[in-house]
Amino acid sequence: MDVMGDKATLFETGRFVQPSSREDTDTPDETGEIADEAAEELRQRLAAEAGDVEAMSVLGAMLLRRGDLDGAEPHLRAATAAGDRAAANNLGVLLHQRGYADEAAGWWRIAAVAGSTAAAHALGRHHRERGDEPAAEYWLRQSAEQGHTLGAYALADLLEHRGDAGAERWMRAAAERGHREAAYRLARALDRKAAREADDDGAPVPDEAEQWYRQAAARGHRRAALHLGTILEKRGQLKEAGRWYLTSAKDGEARAACALGFLLRDAGDTENAAVWWLRAAQDGDGNAANALGALHAERGETQTAERWYRAAMDAGDVNGAYNLGLLCVEQGRTPHAEQWYRRAAYAGHQEAANALAILLLRAGDETGAEPWFSKAAEAGSVDAAFNLGILHAGRGEEQAALRWYERAAAAGHTEAALQVGMALLRDGDDQEAERHLRCAAGGGSAEAAYRLATVLDARRPPEPAHELGEPVHQRSECEEWYERAASQGHRRAQVRVGMHAAARGDVVEAARWYREAAEAGSRNGAFNLGLLLAREGSEPEAAVWWTRAADAGHGRAALRLALVYARRGELAEGQRWADRAVSLGPASVAERAARLRDALRQELSA
User: Fold this and answer.
1) Three-class secondary structure of residue 471 per DSSP
2) What is the pLDDT of residue 36?
3) Where does 162-289 show beta strands of DSSP type E?
4) Backbone angles phi, psi at 267, to 5 degrees
5) Which helix (H) or strand (E) holds 71?
6) DSSP code of 273?
7) Between the CA of residue 213 and those of 169, 252, 571, what are the distances in Å?
8) Would residue 569 be called left, alpha or beta, if left means φ above 0 and alpha means ψ between -120 and 50 degrees?
9) So what's the pLDDT on residue 38?
């Protein structure tokens, strides 16, 4: 008789032997295979009837796999009685399927003691289901240490559940033996570990983690394929990312279908993007439903958009309620917008809380708006923090406003950084102000670029003189910031750029910037353009620009016009502009204008 522990079959690879998935009606291509199986079964049956223990074990396993429990049990019991450990394991499987878990455990114990790694794995799982973790760990470790893949994975799962550092070792062992779920979970663990160490959820995925994602994805793990696609998309490898998203989406991963939709949309293929979003939304992905809603909203199909936003909300995506609020605002349905914003805000949506506060503020309910701004800001909304700054500044609460501006600026809010910079300038702290103004200017604020330029301009030493006595113009950083602000349409910066161009003798460039500022409504630009034209001998055109500047309240322009008309002999007109210059000031201009007016008055009365 065979000694217990010498025999093993392919059925020891798992805890359960799955029944055959073959349909009752076989296809023509399967006929030969069926015939071979039938012949093998007949051969094993004859050998079993002749007393062959191994044949009894194999025949029992074949019947068990087919789902014929009644036919399999006597053969497995006979083989087990004869000492076949594989039969003992499979008998345990059969009894477990019948619902006799304790009896199954008894046979698994016999097989495990005899050296069956599959039985040790099954017994460990049995004890874990009963809540006996020490016994579960013992048997799973026996299985894992003898090279059983499922045993290694189950042991890793148990240790990970307990927070044991040894979990990674066994998860790695199972992954190295081809267990795809173990490869995926190992990748996730390495990924999270790297993020914790970097204190940043957006930290790059370690190479080793990516390799395990790849291994799991290649074996058909749809979530691993999704994560791999995400990694590749962040890296800019969009084509390969799309392939993995597609693989995952075809396997039923709704998040991958949604991500594939966004990838296609970014590539300009909105039609196919909508197909994948639809598939994901129908599988309950709220993000995809929101994307479909936005797509229909862009097309003006508001009813369809609203339907998808509602579907997103029903899927548990709070963005659906927020987007419904945005849609209602665009349609002028303010009460409905408030309703949806409130729903999203109460669910913790920070931007909805900010939007609700803005809605209330516009309706004159400052008292109702402030708590929602605060809630949104505390939840991390940078815009809400900035809006709180505006709210406090409007009340004259400068210190409270500055605190919120500083908070928003620290999170990268450009306009908040500008406000902090300007507050520091008022306090005389130019160095710290410069730091904030640089941040704001770098973020695209024209006003910040102008303010930064003025700070740098004030520090600039006098131009060095040429050895022949002519000034040497060196392009400075402040000019670069003036030009950046000017190119963004900042009128005062345009005037300054014009002044710098005039200083270096570039009359054409100076005139271009003065004219651009003047046409945008700058009275200083109009005045300076008039000066430039007068120096070039075009006094009539200069008078046109001085008139525009004087009409906008520029006292020196009014004085220039008074002088022009006085020289022409148009004394009454000259006196009128002199009167205007006196009223406009400043003091030095008013004094000169008063003397000119008095002289013109005497001339007229003579």
Assistant:
1) strand
2) 81
3) none
4) -85, 0
5) helix 69-81
6) H
7) 17, 18, 89
8) left
9) 86
Report which of 530, 520, 591, 517 is spatially closest to residue 557, judged by C-alpha positions: 530
Residues in the chain: 606
CB 170 within 8 A of CB 144: yes
Provide the residue type at 19 as one letter. P
In this predicted model, what pLDDT tens digit does every residue of 140-168 receive, in sequence order?
A: 999 999 999 999 999 999 999 999 989 99
Could you tell me the CA-to-CA distances from 466 to 60, 461, 499 in Å, in that order? 106, 15, 21
How far is residue 480 from each of residues 150, 422, 487, measured CA to CA in Å?
66, 20, 10
What global pTM score does this model have? Answer: 0.71
Element (H, E) at 570: none
Q: Enter the tokens of residue 560.
A: 């220039």
Torsion angles phi and psi, residue 471, rounded to 5: -65, 145
Closest CA to 133 of 107, 111, 104, 163: 163
- Structural contact between residues 121 and 132, judged by C-beta atoms closer than 8 angstroms: no
| pLDDT given at position 200 | 61
Backbone angles phi, psi at 465, to 5 degrees: -85, 145
Return the sign of the alpha-carbon dihedral for residues 444, 447, 451, 457: positive
Q: Calculate the CA 183 to chain-centre distance.
A: 26
Digit-coded pLDDT (tens) for 405-441: 999 999 999 999 999 999 999 999 999 999 999 999 9
HSE-CB of 386 using CA atoms within 13 angstroms: 18
Separation of alpha carbons 115 and 8, rounded Å:
10
Residue 154, CB half-sphere, CA atoms under 13 Å: how many?
31
Cα–Cα dist 195/274, whole Å: 33
pLDDT averaged over every residue in the chain: 89
Distance (Å, whole) CA 466 – CA 295: 64
What gap in Å lies between CA 579 and CA 549, rounded to an integer?
Answer: 15
Q: How confident is the model at residue 557 (pLDDT cuts 50, 70, 90)?
A: very high
What's the pLDDT at 31? 60
Bridge partners of 465, per DSSP, are 471
Ramachandran quadrant class, 101 (left: phi over 0; alpha: psi -120 to 50; beta: rest): alpha
Q: What is the pLDDT of residues 255-297, one digit of tens each?
A: 999 999 999 999 999 999 999 999 999 999 999 999 999 999 9
Predicted confidence (pLDDT) per residue in 446-487, tens digit: 999 999 999 998 887 665 554 444 554 556 888 999 999 999
Q: What 3-state DSSP class applies to 202?
A: coil
Helix axes 334-346, 319-330, angle to 10 degrees: 160
Q: Which residues have C-beta within 8 Å of that of residue 316, sequence separation ≥ 6?
A: 286
Exposure string (b/e) for 568-595, b if CB count within 10 Å is 16 or more?
A: eeeeebbbbbbbbbbebeeeebbebbee
